[in-house]
Amino acid sequence: IARALSVYPPILLADEPTGNLDTHTGVEILKLIRDLHTELGSTVLMVTHDRNVAESCPRMITLRDGAVVADERREVAAG
C-alpha cells in the first residue's frame, strides 16, 4: 500500500483490499482507504466479494455475468 501511495495517485485501484485479513486489520485498511479519499481527494475503485465491505462505501455498483445490475448511492457513517 505504501509503495502505491508514494506518488499520491489520483485514482487508487483496490482489488479485494481486505481479503485474507482478520476483521480488525480489515477495518483498519478500510479506514486508511477512506482517509486517503478524504485527505488526498483520490478516487477509489474497490473490487470486493464481501458485501459488508461494499456496503461501507458511498457508492456500490453490482456486476453479474459482466453486466451492471445495480448502481446504489448511500450515506455511510464515517469511521
Layout of secondary structure:
Layout: H1 2-5, E1 11-15, H2 23-40, E2 43-47, H3 51-54, E3 59-64, E4 67-73
Parallel strand pairs: 1-2
Antiparallel strand pairs: 3-4
Q: Could you explain the architecture of this structure?
A:
The chain is of the alpha+beta class. It is built from 3 helices and 4 strands; from the N terminus they run αβαβαββ. It has helices at residues 2-5, 23-40, 51-54; strands spanning 11-15, 43-47, 59-64, 67-73. Strands 1-2 form a two-stranded parallel ribbon. A two-stranded antiparallel sheet has the order 3-4.
In percent, how helical is the residue content?
A: 25-40%
By DSSP, the count of extended strands is: 4
Instruction: Give the averaged pLDDT, no decimals.
Output: 88
How would you sum up the major sheet? 2 strands, parallel
- Distance, first to last CA: 19 Å
Shape: globular
> How large is the radius of gyration?
13 Å
Per DSSP, what share of the residues sits in E-state strands of 2 or more residues? Answer: 25-35%
The largest sheet has its strands arranged as 1-2
SS content category? alpha+beta
Element order: H for helix, E for strand: HEHEHEE
Q: Count the DSSP helices.
A: 3
Which blocks of ≥5 consecutive residues have pLDDT under 50? none
Structure characteristics:
4 strands; 79 residues; two-stranded antiparallel ribbon; 3 helices; 33% helix; two-stranded parallel sheet; alpha+beta
Short description:
The protein is an alpha+beta fold and 79 residues long.
